[in-house]
Amino acid sequence: MIAAIERGDQSKFQDSKPPKIKDNTLIKSKEAQKKKTLDKTKALKALRLAAEKQGNS
User: Which helix (H) or strand (E) holds 14?
Assistant: First the structure.
């Protein structure tokens, strides 16, 4: 940036930290995918525990 100031050309400067994504559809879809994955994990854990309990008896 210092070189751009020395040249007097700041139009080419790009921020190294771009603004955050404001697209709520992307955020909502990721949250839905995360919830779906957690639900699958819980279901598989319950199934595994039931199988172990049945195997012990």
Answer: none
pTM exceeds 0.70 for this model:
no
Q: Would you say 13 and 4 are in contact if contact means Cβ atoms under 8 Å apart? A: yes
Question: How many percent of the chain have pLDDT more than 90?
Answer: 46
Alpha-carbon span 45 to 53, nearest angstrom: 12
User: 4 near 15, Cβ under 8 Å?
Assistant: no
Query: Are 26 and 34 spatial neighbours (Cβ–Cβ below 8 Å)?
Result: no
Sign of the CA dihedral with 10 first, then 12, 18, and 23 last? positive
